[in-house]
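Journal club prep — side note

Before the paper discussion, L.F. wants everyone to see what a predicted structure for a comparable chain looks like in token form. Sequence:
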Amino acid sequence: MQATARAREHQVVFCGLEVLRLINDRLENQNEIDRQDLDTVLTFMRTVAHRCLDNTEDILRFAGMDASLANHLRARSILNQLDSALNNVESEEFRLLCVAYVDLLATAIFEDRRCLATLGCDVTTLGQFYEWEREVDELARSHGELLHRLETKYTSPHCI
């Protein structure tokens, strides 16, 4: 059950990353985007994906997984840079930040899953972690339908 909830949550995060990638592709090709869609995706990343990263960090810190923690910090930094660059979404800088963020966050999620599967954490730590993850899963699911609609929208650009 716990692994299933975490996998569902990650599917929604990956959907959000795909929407960001599709929006970035449209920007790169100098096509229009709906600015509200971009704001929606970045807000989702901040409130759901990064909350998931926060939850994972306690276990990674306990296990001494410094490289994974460094990737989390880099992902936060890039998301902050994306927020700062929102006034100029047509810029090369914004597009490069999008690519870096999508790649880094997807890699971090896969690495975290691999690391967590191999760690032998105590039952109390894992119990608290999975309780936090259930909360994040509920948040992710509440955004899932909207992100899937945005994915369809940017996959079928005639809908924009």
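L.F.'s comment for the group: Helices lie at 2-28, 35-63, 66-84, 92-118, 123-155. Keep this in mind when we get to the figures.
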